[in-house]
């Protein structure tokens, strides 16, 4: 399975060293920045925002960043403003309001169609959470897509926190039409042995176009050898913590699986970080923005845990419908149509940045 978290929460040892050496010292939020030799996504984020959470920069520059671990010197990056807007651009709130007004003026069909039943879960801030406006980034993108590009479908959203039940039970039984949102593997890639999970994602479900690309990191103790690992193979033999219900697909695609690693799966990111701190796990592997917010919640700093600066994963999230649903392809096609229009209008990025602003305000309030 997107963090304008501008608080000073997670400074990696590598990033601090780079900054003290003078690298990445000229970045400012709400400007364009030219990548210099030695810059990393984390050091750029720290210099501009005071946090190593670089997902917002990645979001704003997704069309030009192919590998967040290998920035080319000379690349010009747009560093989002604190309100989430891009330099010299319309604010997220203004763009969303304009798109909502435009959509409201579109004549709706008088033909009744039943609401599309969608299911999400809590504990995945800022993507899906009842504590955030509209249910978080993914939920807002899903519901808005059904009101764009000529769509006018009513919907309902329920939160079921047992994530594994979404795909194992709720969608196959028809209790819900769409689940928000899941990692979808490259189903053309058979260079590795598929797990039953990957097999199911590729054969039992209809997936939307990629909704959001998430950068995942590997988090460990500062003194651990895994903090300086330079390739995925270096994690073979380790104990990796990944939360229950979180897909293993993203790790399998880079060669890490249950056969060459020991996987522990508690219920939360906090428990995963606790596992690393207590030695139950060597590494925690999940989203960089979730790491930043969890570190903040736990009152931890870079003296406690760090992100490996050399390896990361990139996974595409999609909305899923079960193939046994007779309307699966119709519903996914509607969402695809709306998502494509939202990307063209800029509303896709505006929704993401607006929710990240809200999440950041909550983090600020919690620490004061």
UniProtKB/TrEMBL annotation:
InterPro entries: LysM, LysM_dom_sf. Residues 1-26 form the signal peptide. Residues 31-79 form the LysM domain. Keywords: Signal. This is LysM domain/BON superfamily protein. It comes from Ruegeria atlantica.
């Amino acid at each position: 399975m997107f963090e304008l978290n501008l608080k000073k929460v997670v400074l990696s040892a590598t990033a601090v060293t780079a900054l003290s050496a003078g690298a990445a010292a000229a970045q400012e939020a709400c400007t364009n920045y030219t990548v210099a030799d030695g810059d990393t996504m984390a050091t750029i984020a720290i210099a501009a925002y005071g946090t190593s959470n670089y997902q917002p920069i990645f979001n704003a520059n997704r069309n030009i960043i192919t590998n967040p671990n290998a920035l080319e010197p000379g690349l010009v990056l747009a560093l989002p403003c604190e309100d989430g807007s891009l330099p010299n651009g319309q604010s997220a709130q203004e763009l969303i309001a304009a798109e909502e007004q435009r959509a409201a003026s579109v004549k709706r069909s008088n033909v009744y169609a039943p609401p599309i039943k969608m299911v999400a879960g809590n504990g995945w801030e800022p993507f899906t959470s009842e504590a955030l406006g509209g249910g978080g980034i993914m939920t807002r993108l899903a519901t808005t897509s059904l009101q764009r590009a000529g769509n006018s479908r009513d919907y309902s959203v329920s939160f079921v926190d047992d994530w594994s039940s979404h795909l194992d039970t709720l969608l196959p039984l028809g209790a819900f039409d769409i689940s928000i949102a899941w990692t979808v593997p490259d189903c053309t890639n058979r260079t590795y042995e598929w797990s039953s999970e990957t097999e199911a994602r590729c054969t039992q479900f209809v997936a939307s176009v990629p909704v959001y690309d998430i950068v995942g990191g590997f988090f460990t103790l500062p003194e651990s050898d895994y903090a300086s690992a330079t390739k995925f193979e270096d994690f073979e033999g380790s104990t990796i913590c990944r939360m229950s219900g979180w897909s293993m697909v993203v790790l399998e695609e880079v060669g890490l699986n249950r056969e060459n690693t020991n996987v522990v799966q508690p219920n939360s990111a906090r428990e995963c970080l606790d596992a690393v701190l207590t030695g139950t796990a060597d590494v925690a592997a999940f989203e960089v923005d979730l790491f930043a917010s969890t570190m903040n919640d736990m009152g931890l700093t870079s003296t406690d845990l760090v992100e490996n600066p050399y390896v990361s994963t990139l996974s595409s999230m999609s909305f899923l419908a079960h193939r046994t649903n007779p309307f699966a392809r119709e519903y996914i096609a509607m969402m695809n149509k709306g998502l494509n229009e939202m990307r063209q209008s800029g509303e896709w990025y505006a929704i993401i940045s607006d929710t990240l602003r809200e999440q950041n305000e909550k983090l600020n309030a919690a620490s004061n």
